[in-house]
């Protein structure tokens, strides 16, 4: 089965045609993509493909009900669109991808694959916010977790590379958005993102977790409205907020090398949070066997991996300096563990596309979730 994969992220759109062996036989990447207003290129790409047997869409939020790969039929598209408030940066882009491809390939079955689905069996202790019970019941407030397609692939690859199905893996997806997952025996047992993709690590343009009291203070005392606050936390915070410039870690690191004070501070804040939370994920599953880095930053930025690992020796993490320095995303999935370290560390190329194709095939074969 040839599967066209549509991966709409917050900062990019990635289209891939995968053959039955998961080889990428056609690709289009749009670095900057606004979503609904800009679908001609997707349509042209999809229309120009010789053979598409099925389409798989990455959809960031599935809410409480869409918990596995789902054929886009009936009201499914509208149910996905109805979750826009919970992922305003992402959900409209996912829906735009569904609409654009349906326009040019109306007879090809499409399957929605959700970032949230991998985390659907998180233990209650990990999903529950300590909020009034009445609110939780009325609005279904809970932590969902995201980047599940990437975490599922990264953790599976770590299991294969370790040759252990029961491994405890901390998966670090570090892209424009970023999150960690604690994965034990292939199942997500904790993760950093919550009700929305705003909780957790410092990201390119997102704040990650901040004190809720600080947000209340801003609303009450700084004259900010809810809309302004939302706009500031999402596209104007994170690395971009810290440097007052680009949220691209490549640029930040150039500033670090040039000794620019804001860039050094931003890098330190990013790494401090990352390191602390890796240890937290390990604690959520009584230790770890493998640490995996994936996503644009995880794959291509040796200094981030080195700086995060530098504080984790107490857990048994240690990187081989040369192997880590050489792992810049071109050499496939590689190990970067220092000789003798108790925890194995891998760099795994993010393959949300192959995870989606796998789920599409499973859903269309009728054997449920992949
Ligand atoms: N070739 C590269 N070299 C260094 N850093 C990279 C490279 N590609 C991507 N990155 C980093 O990864 C970030 C984007 O991650 P990516 O996973 O591609 O984005 P998205 O979350 O939109 O899928 C960029 O901000 C950049 O810092
Ligand atoms: C969920 C999320 O943050 O996705 P992305 O990294 O693509 O923005
Ligand atoms: Mg991404």
UniProtKB/TrEMBL annotation:
Q: Which gene encodes it?
A: ackA
Which parts of the sequence bind substrate?
Answer: 58
- Is Translocase included in the keywords of this UniProt record? no
The identity of this protein, by name, is Acetate kinase
GO-annotated cellular components: cytoplasm
Q: Where is the active site?
A: 115
Major subcellular location class: cytoplasm
Tell me the protein family, please: Belongs to the acetokinase family.
